[in-house]
Amino acid sequence: MSEGARLKREPMSKVDTAWLRMERPTNRMMITGVLMFAGPLDPAKIKALLGERFLAFRRFRQRAVIGANGAYWELDNDFDLDWHVRVAALPGAADKAELEAFVSNLASTALDSSRPLWQFHIIEDYTSPEGSGGVLVARIHHCYADGLALVQVLLSLTDTAPQPEAHAELAKTWLKRDRGSVLERLLEPMQGSLHKVFAVGEKTWAKVAQMMADPAVAAEFAYEGSEITRELAIAVTLSDDPVTALKGKLGVAKRVAWAEPLPLDEVKTLGKALGCTVNDVLLACAAGAIRGYLRDLGEDVDGLTIRATVPVNLRPLEHAKKLGNHFGLVFLDLPIGEPNPLRRLERVAACMRDLKGRRQAVVAFGLLAALGMAPAALQQPALELFSRKATAVATNVPGPQQPLFMAGVEVRELMFWVPQTGSIGLGLSIISYNGRVHFGVVGDSKRVRDPDAIVQRFAGEFEKLLLIALMEDWSEEIGAGDAAATLGRYA
After folding, report:
1. Domain O-acyltransferase WSD1-like N-terminal spans what residues (predicted)?
2. CB 79 within 8 Å of CB 61
């Protein structure tokens, strides 16, 4: 290899390599974002903006390449911005249903691996209930960065006022001074054991393989190992998620849908009244929506609990501009078998509190790094092992609580989806923006034939909790029994 070619290549981190290798026809490893605007978009202005701000990140001019000795980044000498930024038109009524179908098709279609793995689509003719306007759909491969970082990248394309000069205000709050490397800060509280997870690479996966082959070995580690090894063993020994219509063989087509947004202030007030977080409320509503969806399919879900893997950010926000993947995963219980919405909320909140006191997310980060170095023969079994333990991926991103503008046009709504892994076929996405909460679903077409039937239940689940809070005495603790009585009388 020539010296010039070597200089154009950069080694890819092991975690980013893991996400690149996870690409499957049944699960495209793309993060998909949708920005809906209050007016039409000028394609020339959007393209110029992307050239100035998006391509300021050098990584987006680089291709992701898997070589014999690992993956690396390589500068695309034939880079063509026109290929990466496309103009499209919706058919028919150009309404929400047509936009959802358009985004669903994109979420099912692979990016061109011979080019940098990202693409933007400008839609000029979208008609929403709030009026007509433009739409920008972004698709970026997960190997470039995690969901939080890529949402921040998209936000860096916006301004806090119609005039671009106001961009400095947003940039100042996002691009803060660095405070040490992400990995150093992550490892600082646990220098000993987690360093070993990164250092041993294939040996780590050999231990996972041993645990996979003999559950007794995993059980022994769960009780006798270090904190990090215990968390690893607990993850391996988790039971498979129960079989529902959401679990099974996946297809290649994905379908997306999103709900009308909820007022963020109401969600905050409700969480405070019920003694839990905004995140707890929203995930409990999602669990209730899934419960209703499965019951309408004729499934007996009473008593069932399914799990969702929840990404946990492991870096300060200012590091997002460095791109890359710096997050862990935790397994969250979604008690879809609980008919009482308040009890369902209590169980979600209790699970979240338990997870906050553990190292599960950090262990998952270490496992992803090890997966990037693991022998190819072990990757698929390991990925499938952990995929069987969850039914969904649930992501919640807090966005800016002020109106944003892109190329002078106000952003009206935001939505995004992160990819699922292995045999997981359902993704739940929650993002707040400008005083409202947006909820969306992406589902494998074989497992979730009508994602709209899930998202349309989201507001109803929130209204049940709101009714409970409004009808009860706030001076006393509100219990699940009170909730059941209130719903029985008024719902």
Report:
1. 12-281
2. yes
